[in-house]
Design goal:
The complex is a heterodimer of chains A (about 160) and B (about 525). With about 160 residues, chain A is mainly alpha-helical. Chain A has 2 domains: about 70 residues; about 60 residues, no CATH class. In chain A, helix 1 packs antiparallel against helix 2, helix 4 runs antiparallel to helix 5 and helix 5 packs antiparallel against helix 6. Chain A is flat, with a radius of gyration of 24 Å. Chain B is mainly α. Chain B has one domain. Chain B is built from 22 helices and 2 strands. In chain B, strand 1 and strand 2 form a beta hairpin. In chain B, helix 6 packs parallel to helix 14. Chain B is globular. Chain B starts with a helix and ends in a 14-residue tail after the last helix. Chains A and B meet through helix 1, helix 2, helix 3, helix 4 and helix 5 of A and helix 8, helix 9, helix 18, helix 19 and helix 20 of B.
Chain lengths: ~160, ~525
Amino acid sequence: MHSARLRELLSGAICMMLGLGAVLEASRYSIGTLKQLGPGFYPALLGTALALVGAVIAGAALTKSTVEEAADPLLEGGTDLRGPDWRGWGCIIGGVVLFIFLAWATGLVSAIFACVFVSARGDRSATLKGSIILALVMTVCGSFVFGYLLGINLPLWQWPFES
Amino acid sequence: MSSSLTGLWHGFEVALLPANLMWCFIGVLVGNIVGVLPGLGVLATVSILLPLTFGMKPVAAILMLAGIYYGAQYGGAICSILLNLPCHPPHAVTCLDGYPLTKQGKGGTALGLSIIGACIGAALGIVEMTFFAPVVARFALNFGPAEVCTLMLFGLLAGSTLARGSPLKGVAMMLLGQMLGLAGVDMNTGLPRFTFGILDLYDGVELVALALGLFGIAEFLKSVNRLAPLHVGNLRLGLRDLLPSRADLRIGVPAMMRGSLMGALCAMVPGTGPTIASFVSYALEKKISRTPERFGTGMIEGVASPEASTHSSVQADFIPTMSMGIPGESGMALLLGALMIQGIQPGPLLISEHPDIFWGLIASFWIGNLILVILNVPMIGIWVRMLAIPYRLLYPSALFFVCIGVYSARNSLFQVGETLVFGLVGYGMIRLRFHVAPMLLGFILGPRMEENFRNAMAISGGDFSIFIRRPISAVFVSLCGVLILSQLYAQLVRHRASRRPSQVNASLPQVEE
C-alpha cells in the first residue's frame, strides 16, 4: 500500500460499489409492501447501509488532515506483510486449482500429490526433495484416511476423461 | 439453582458416555496441537473438521468442536511466553511480560502460572454458564420477532465494532457477510437471490467454504514466506520447571481471580471475546499495581491475570450462543453453524428441548479442561518441541485438508473453487486492513435476522415503530444507539489525542476509552 489515505479511499470505494451493486441486483426482485416484505427489501436495505458506510470511510479519508496509521500489532502478528510474494501466492492458488482439476480428471491420489507438492514449492526455504517427500507422505496418508477410512465420494484413480 | 445442578448431573451422564468422552478428548487434543502450532488458526481447524461432523450425533459433534475451541487456548500461551510471538490474538498481551520472564530463565514458571490461571478462569466461566445461561434463556423466551431482530442487530453491531480494527470497516464486513448469507433461494418466495444464474449457488453459500476461504486460504496467502523461522534452540522444559514458587503464587493467584472475574464480565458484553478480555485485564493489573512502570519487564501479574481472563471469557462466551442463539464472535458463529447443520434450531428453547446438548456441553467443559491440564503439565516438553515444526511443512498439508474438507461438505468441486475465491477476496480485504471475522458473524445471523425482520413487520402491519414500541426491543435499540455514540466519542477523543504529540500506548485496544 502506497499510503494510508489511498488505502482508505479504495476501501470506501469498494464498499460503496458492493453496496450499490447489491441495491441494483435487489431492485430486480420484488420489494413488496411494508406489511408483506418482498425478497428484495432486506438486500436493498443492506446494500444501502453498506454504500453509506463506504461513503463515510472514503469521506473520512478525504477530509482528515492526517490519516493516522492504526497501530495494530495484532493484525500483522509480528510479520512483515509488505510487498507482493508472487511465488507463494501463485503456488498456493495453483495448488488449489490443480486439486480441482485433477480430482475431476484423474482422481484423488493425483490431486493430493499435485496440491501438496505445488503449494509446498511456494515456500522459498523448501527443497525439491523435501517437497516431494512431504507430498508423498500426504498422498499416502490422505488417500488412506479419506479414500479408504472415510470413503469420500471421489475415485482414488481414474483414467482422464473416461467417465 | 437446583435445576441447574440436576441438569449438570444429567450432563455428566451424557458427557461420560465412552463415545462422547472420546470425541471430547479428540477435540481438546486437536485444539491443543493447533494452539501450539504457529500459523494455523482455530477457526480454520474447526471449519476443516466441520464436514466430518455431519455424520456424527449432534452431541458428539458439538463437544468435539467446542473442545477444539477452548483447547487451543491452552497451547496459545506457549508461543507467546517462550518465543515472544503473538501467534494467537488472545495471548498476544501475554508476550509483554511472559517473554521477559523467559529471558530471566523463568519461562517454565510463566507457563505453569498460565496453566493454573487457565484452571481458575475456566472454572469461573463454566460456573457462570451453568447458572446464568438458563436464566438468560428463560428471559429470552418472551422475545418476539421484533426483540430477536433488534437483539441480533445489537449483537452484530457490538461484534463488528468492539472487535479489533476500525469499527466502520467491521460494520462493512458484517453487512457484506449478511449479503452472502442471503444468497440462494429465498425461503418465503422461492426466488433465487444473488446467485447470478449459477446453479451451485441456489443452496446458498457454503459455510465451510466461506470460513476456510477467509481463515484458511487467506491466512496462507498472508503468511507464506513471511513467518520467520522459529528458533526454539535449547528450550527444554520439564515438569519441575513449571512449578511456581510460593512467592509467585502469592502474587499470581489474586491476579488470576481478578482476571477471571474480568473475563466473566467481558463475556456478558456481546462482541467482546477473549482477546479484549485479556487486554482489559492486563490494563487493570497495570492500573492497580503499585509499580506500573515495571510492567513489561516480567511481572507475574502480567501473565497470570490475562491468561485467566482469556479462559474464563472463552467458556462464558458460550452463554449468549447457547441460551439465545446469538454468537458474540466468529468462533461461536461457527459452532452455531455446526448446530444448525445438525438440524438444531438455536434459540432460548435449546436448553429445554435439547438438554443433552446443553448440559452435556457444560459437563464436557469440566472434563475437557481436566484432560487439558493432564495433557499440558507432564507433556509440556513435547508441546514446546512442536513449535519447531516449520511452516513450509504445515501449510501445504493444511491446504490439502482445506480442499478435501470443503469438498466433502457437499461432495462438490465447485465448493473448492468457491473457497479459493473467498480466500482471494479475503486476502485482498486483509490487505486493505479489513478484519474478516465479522463477515462470518453476519453470514450466520443474516438470514435469521431477515426472517425475524419480515415477521416483525408483518405483525405490526408495516409499522416500523414496533421496534421501539415494545419495551425490551426499545432497550436493545437504545443499546445500539449507545454503542454508536460511544464509538463516535472514542473517535473524537482519538482525533484530539492524535493532534497532541502525546505518548499513547498503541498496544492497548480502543475499548479502553
